[in-house]
Amino acid sequence: MKGPLFYAKILLFGEYGIIKDSKGLAIPFNSYKGALKVSKNLSGQALKSNESLKDFYKYLVELDTEIVSFNLAEFKNDIDSGMYFDSSIPMGYGIGSSGALVASVYDKYANDKITVLENLTRDKLIKLKEVFSLMESFFHGKSSGLDPLNSYLSLPILINSKENIEATGIPSQKEGKGAVFLLDSEQVGETEPMVSLFMNKMKNEGFRKMLSNEFVTYTDACIEDFLKGNVKSLFSNVKQLSKVVLTNFKPMIPNAFHKVWEKGIQTNDYYLKLCGSGGGGYILGFTEDYEKAKASLKDYKLELVYRF
């Protein structure tokens, strides 16, 4: 058995904000992917994955919900036969490793599943997101369901609000100088502690005000600019967003990158933002001149995501 491939995702804009109903824009990232496979001789990562699937199975058995049901007998049988998730998506890096796994399990074992080929109405997208949120909560404690949704559909997803999401098109890539890139922090980040930290910060009125007045405003503007191809305005808004994140989300930025982050804002060589919940993994970069950014960040590993 070898299941279909499910890809990584990148949340270009909207991290943390989407928990509080800002806009979000997520795109598939086909450089990394995973699929369910079966092997009789499990060792290393495959064995670890199989153990994790056993725990996930127990979680799904106890899931008390009307909105989805699974063929759990078949799921258990496959796990007992040595099923694992064979994935190149780095874990704890903010690009949806658990999302791809959740999408693959839903695809194979959900009864009456919503398929990618049918007419994806807003109601169906909301239902899928709800199902995925329930499923992925096993991994993160609290999940928006967006990562698995993106991986499952393999389409860019625009989140207008919790109740309003749509598959969208993004401008086709150009052979320009500008780029979106990933910067490898070479540290693993854990989602759950970061989300808890954010929820604690939300108890502070000043933080809540900053979130709605600054963070959400710049996030929404960035999304609009990106989708419309307003590159000049996009970089101006990304710079402001980068400043807001550095000032207010410092605990989510690995310590070794505070100065690197600031350097980008001061030199305009690049602007950094969180990729997912932060705390490690990838950091997302935007630059009007990728060659200049590479020279400025020569001590770090960069990966190209999108060209302007």
TrEMBL record:
User: Which molecular function GO terms apply here?
Assistant: ATP binding; kinase activity
Which keywords fit this entry according to its UniProt record?
A: ATP-binding, Kinase, Nucleotide-binding, Transferase
Q: Which InterPro entries match?
A: GHMP_kinase_C_sf, GHMP_kinase_N_dom, Ribosomal_Su5_D2-typ_SF, Ribsml_uS5_D2-typ_fold_subgr
Q: Which Gene3D superfamilies match?
A: 3.30.230.10
Q: Which Pfam families does the record associate with it?
A: GHMP_kinases_N
- Record domain GHMP kinase N-terminal: where: 83-147
Q: Which SUPFAM superfamilies match?
A: GHMP Kinase, C-terminal domain (SSF55060), Ribosomal protein S5 domain 2-like (SSF54211)
Protein name listed in UniProt: GHMP kinase N-terminal domain-containing protein
